[in-house]
Each structure stands twice: as structure tokens, then as C-alpha cells.
Amino acid sequence: MSKTIQMTTIGGPEVMQLIEQPLGEPGPGEVRVRHHAIGLNFIDVYFRSGVYPLPSLPSGLGKEGAGVVEAVGPGVTGWQVGDRVAYAGGDNGAYSESRLIPAAQLVRLPDSVSFELAAAAMLKGLTAQYLLRRTYRVKPGDTILIHAAAGGVGLMVCQWAKALGATVIGTVSTPEKAALAQAHGCDHPLIHSAGHFPTQVRELTGGQGVNVVYDSIGKDTFLDSLDCLRPLGMMVSFGNASGVVESFSPQLLSQKGSLFLTRPVLFHYTAQRSDLEQMAAELFEVLADGTVKVEIHQRYALADVAQAHRDLEARRTTGSTILIP
């Protein structure tokens, strides 16, 4: 039996229920993983609330975890019982003590990275990797704008971009979060309530604007983010924390400087096994050498996941948050 979080309907945090269910043995191509730590991410809120559709109900929740292999199914090679593994993506179901998962979704966890660090860093870190190295390849001399700079992805982007030679501008909601972002490589943390951030960004860049905006907020910041870009700049909309961006005419992009717009999803970037392995290797490298430090500021028991979601949605969290099964 495995304790797991199950939803029978979409809605608020209260729809997540802790149940016990039998798992059985892994099928062809699968392994059974016992979690030591589980990642909490805003994408989980999107699935729980219906912003992103679930394939069916009842459903599990959670996209990220780290633990050890408990059993190996038929046809699986390269994995054995006791291997340390981590993953980010695939079907929902990480909110559990143990789960069955396709072996192809796992990456080997080096001894230099703890289970808690992996659970806190895999999804956010792979997101930071594709944002900075693939969607727009940040180079020395670039200036970037990252929203939610004190969040889990934001803090990783600030550190990594700074190490790549970029000037980092970030938006946050409180002075405390501004200080946190600045301590993690953000050159210019801007507090939303302290002014109109496009004007501030223009002032900081001598009127030129930034090369790229990484926007996980969505509806509340999207149009203002476009006003922060220099001509031919890249708008990367990778989240909807404030709601889905409203429809607009593509003509707006030309009016604001022949801008580029993309709406990337991590799971498209990791669809090929070779890409997943390369991205994970680069992430583990910057974690191991200290280029990127991940701070776990919140830990919740799996049974307390509803409160974890409430705190996440209310923006009462900073850094990374994990669940302990």
C-alpha cells in the first residue's frame, strides 16, 4: 500500500485527499520508485484548479520527485533496485509515498545531490536551463527581466544568468523578497507596488529595453512586459500565476518593435531522451559547483499538501518548497 494524494474533481486545495492504494509490480518499461522528497510547483495548482486539463478523474497530482528504485519491470535495462533517481515531468502522481513510472523519465541522481535538493531543483532547474540556454541563449552583456525573481525558478534564473554575464532585473512583491533576489544575483530588484515597472526598466537600460523577458505571472504583467523589450526582443511567457493572458492581435508585436513571442513547455524540451540527459547533466553541474544554490525555505508533510497549496497561491512562499512523504 502507498499513501497518495488523489483528486476526484477539480477545484481548491480541499479537493486533494490523502488515500491508501495498492501499487503492485511495475509493468513493461516501468520501475517502482519510493520517494524521499517531492517537489511542489505552480503547475500543480494549474492542474488542480483546471487551468490545465487533466486527462481523466480521479487523478493524482505532482510532476517531480526523488527517491530510490524499489522494483524494475520487464524489459527495463540500465536500472536496478537501490539506484538513486529523480524526475520532472510525465504523468501526474508524484504526491505519493511510492509510484510506478516509465524508466525513460528517470535520470540518475549523483551522490553530490541530495534527495531533497533534487526534488526542489529538478523541475525548476530544468525550466531555468531551457529558458536561459535554449529558448533564449543568454550571453555576456545581455540584460534580462525575470518576474517572480524570489520564487523557485526566479532565484535559479537570477544566479545562472548572472554567472553567464548578464545584467539581471527582477520583479518581486515585497522588500523582503527584493533583498532575497538581490542576494541571489538580481542586480535590480523592482517592487511591483513601488512604481510602474516598464518605466523603471527603461530607466535602468538607458531607454533601450531588455533582450528578453521571462514572464511566469501571465495576465497581470504580459502587456507591460512587452513594453520592457528592445526591438527584436524575446518575450517568453512560461506561466499563468495571475491568470491566462487575454487574446491580442499579432500586429501588437510589430508595433512594439518586431518582437518575438514564445510560450514554451518544459516537457517539449525533454521529449527526447538525449535532451533530457544533457539538460539534467548541465543542471547537476551548476548545482555541484555552486553556481546555482537552491534554498528550501518550506517543507510540508504530504498530508499537509492543502496548506502548502494555499501558501503557494497566496505568494507566502520564497525559494523552493518540498513535500515529505
UniProtKB/TrEMBL annotation:
Keywords tagged on the record: NADP, Oxidoreductase
Superkingdom of origin: Bacteria
UniProt EC number: 1.6.5.5
Keyword Oxidoreductase: yes
GO CC annotations on file: cytosol
Molecular function per GO: mRNA 3'-UTR AU-rich region binding; NADPH binding; quinone reductase (NADPH) activity; zinc ion binding
Domain Enoyl reductase (ER): 11-323
Keyword Aminoacyl-tRNA synthetase: no
Pfam families to which the protein is assigned, alphabetical: ADH_N (PF08240), ADH_zinc_N (PF00107)
CDD domains: QOR2
Name of the molecule in the record: NADPH2:quinone reductase
